[in-house]
Design goal:
Number of strands: 0
Number of domains: 2
Order of helices and strands: HHHHHHHHHHHHHHH
Distance between the termini: 38 Å
CATH topology of the largest domain: I/LWEQ domain
Radius of gyration: 21 Å
Strand content: under 5%
CATH architecture of the largest domain: Up-down Bundle
Shape: globular
CATH class of the largest domain: Mainly Alpha
C-alpha cells in the first residue's frame, strides 16, 4: 500500500514526530482563534458570543480533520506539501472573514471553508487507494462535509436567528458524521495525534497572552500591571491543569489502546470532540482577560463576566468529561470548581474586574495545590518514571 500511495504523490507516516509543516499550518489557526476572540469582543452580547463559538466550532472541526490526515500521511512529501499550502491559503481567507462571517462576508467564508475541507478530503483519498476501510470512512466524512458546507452557503443568504440556526445545524451534522458512519476504517499514530492536540492547546493559551496585550492597548497603570500578572497566572494555571498530568496520561492510554476501533473511538471522543470545550473555554477566558485589562477598575458586564468565569468553568468541565471518557471516573474537585465558577458569575457583575480575576486565580490555584498534594507519589511516578497511573491520579 505504501508504494501505491507514493506513486500518487503521498507517503504514509512512519514516525510520531510533528513536522515543521504541521506547525507552519497551525500558524494560520492562531489567526483564526484571534479572529474569533475579536468577533466576540466587537459584539459583546450573548448573540455575539454564540456566533464566535459557532465559528470556532467550524474552524476546530476543519483543524481536527487535518490532524487525522497528517497522522496517516507525511505532509511534507510529494504533492501533499503543495495541497497543504493551498489549504493554508484557504484557511487564511476563512480567518480573515471571521469578523463578518455572519454579515457581509458570510458567502466568502462558506466558499473558502469549502475549499479547505475539499482539500482535506482530496488528500485523504490520495492516502487510501488500496485501503477500502479507510476510503469508506473518508467517503462518509465527505458526505457530512458536503452537507455542512451546503448549509453554510444557505445560511449566507439569511440573517439573525435563522442564520444562526443553520450554522448550529451544520456544525452538529458535520461533527456528528464520524460518530454514525463507523470508526473501524480510520488510522492514526497515537504519539503524533496526542502531541498535535497538546500543541493546539498551547496555541489557544497563547491567545490569552495576546488578549492581555490587546486589552492594555499600549497603556500602563498599576491596575493594568496587576491585571497582566494575574492574567498570566491564570493562563499558567490552565496550562498546569492540562500538561502536568492530563496530557501525559491521555497520550499513554491512547498509545496502549487496541489498534482499530477502540483506539479510533478513544481518539475521536477524547481528542476530536472533548478538546473542543477546552479550547472554547480558553478562548472565552481570553475574551474575559481582554475586557478586564481594559477596564480594571470597572465592573464586568454579564457577557465578559461569563466569558472569564464561565469560560474557565467550561474548560474544567472539558477535563472532567475527558477523564470520564478514559477511566469512567469523575474528577470531583474540577467539577465542583466549575459549578462554583458558574455561580460566581452574578457576583462578578457587582465586583471590580480586577477582583474577579483575582478570585478566579485563587480558586484554580487552590485546586491545583490540593490535587498536587493528594496525587503525591502517583504524580511523581507518572511524570518521571512513565508509570501508568491509577484512576485517582489521572
Amino acid at each position: 500500500m505504501e508504494a501505491s500511495s507514493e506513486s500518487r504523490g503521498a507517503r504514509l507516516r512512519e514516525d510520531e514526530r510533528v513536522t515543521p509543516l504541521e506547525l507552519f499550518f497551525d500558524l494560520v489557526f492562531v489567526l483564526a482563534i484571534t479572529q474569533c476572540t475579536a468577533l466576540m469582543s466587537h459584539h459583546p452580547s450573548w448573540s455575539g458570543m454564540a456566533q464566535g463559538l459557532l465559528v470556532l466550532g467550524m474552524l476546530w472541526w476543519a483543524w481536527v480533520g487535518y490532524a487525522w490526515l497528517t497522522s496517516v500521511i507525511d505532509p511534507e512529501e510529494g504533492a501533499v506539501r503543495l495541497v497543504m499550502f493551498a489549504a493554508m491559503a484557504g484557511l487564511l481567507i476563512v480567518s480573515l472573514c471571521v469578523p463578518e462571517s455572519f454579515g457581509n462576508l458570510a458567502l466568502l467564508f462558506a466558499l473558502a471553508y469549502g475549499v479547505v475541507r475539499t482539500a482535506h478530503i482530496a488528500l485523504f483519498m490520495l492516502a487510501s487507494p488500496d485501503d477500502d476501510a479507510l476510503r469508506h470512512s473518508v467517503l462518509g466524512l465527505a458526505a457530512s462535509t458536503v452537507i455542512a458546507v451546503g448549509l453554510l452557503l444557505a445560511a449566507s443568504a439569511l440573517d439573525s436567528l435563522a442564520q444562526g440556526a443553520l450554522w448550529a445545524l451544520a456544525l452538529l451534522l458535520d461533527m456528528g458524521g464520524p460518530y454514525f458512519f463507523g470508526s473501524e476504517g480510520w488510522k492514526l499514530v497515537p504519539g503524533h495525534f496526542s502531541e498535535r492536540h497538546g500543541l493546539i492547546v498551547i496555541i489557544a493559551l497563547g491567545e490569552s497572552i495576546v488578549a492581555i496585550g490587546v486589552g492594555a492597548s499600549g497603556e500602563m497603570s498599576a491596575g493594568i500591571v496587576v491585571a497582566a500578572v494575574l492574567g498570566v497566572a491564570l493562563t499558567a494555571a490552565m496550562w498546569w491543569t492540562y500538561f502536568d498530568i492530563v496530557a501525559l496520561v491521555s497520550a499513554r492510554r491512547l498509545a496502549n489502546s487496541a489498534e482499530g476501533r477502540e483506539r479510533n473511538e478513544m481518539a475521536r471522543d477524547s481528542y476530536s470532540y472533548l478538546h473542543l470545550p477546552m479550547v472554547a473555554g480558553i478562548v472565552l477566558v481570553a475574551l474575559g482577560l481582554k475586557t478586564t485589562i481594559g477596564h480594571v477598575d470597572a465592573h464586568l458586564h454579564a457577557v465578559p463576566a461569563f466569558a472569564l468565569l464561565g469560560g474557565l468553568a467550561i474548560y474544567l468541565l472539558g477535563h472532567v468529561a475527558f477523564r470520564y471518557r478514559h477511566v469512567h471516573t469523575i474528577n470531583r474537585q474540577r467539577l465542583l470548581l466549575a459549578i462554583v465558577l458558574f455561580f460566581l458569575v452574578p457576583v462578578a457583575i457587582e465586583l471590580p474586574a480586577l477582583a474577579t480575576l483575582a478570585i478566579a486565580n485563587i480558586l484554580i490555584w487552590a485546586m491545583i495545590a490540593y490535587e498536587t498534594r493528594i496525587y503525591g507519589d502517583a504524580r511523581h511516578r507518572v511524570r518521571h518514571q512513565g508509570a501508568e497511573p491509577s484512576a485517582e491520579a489521572s
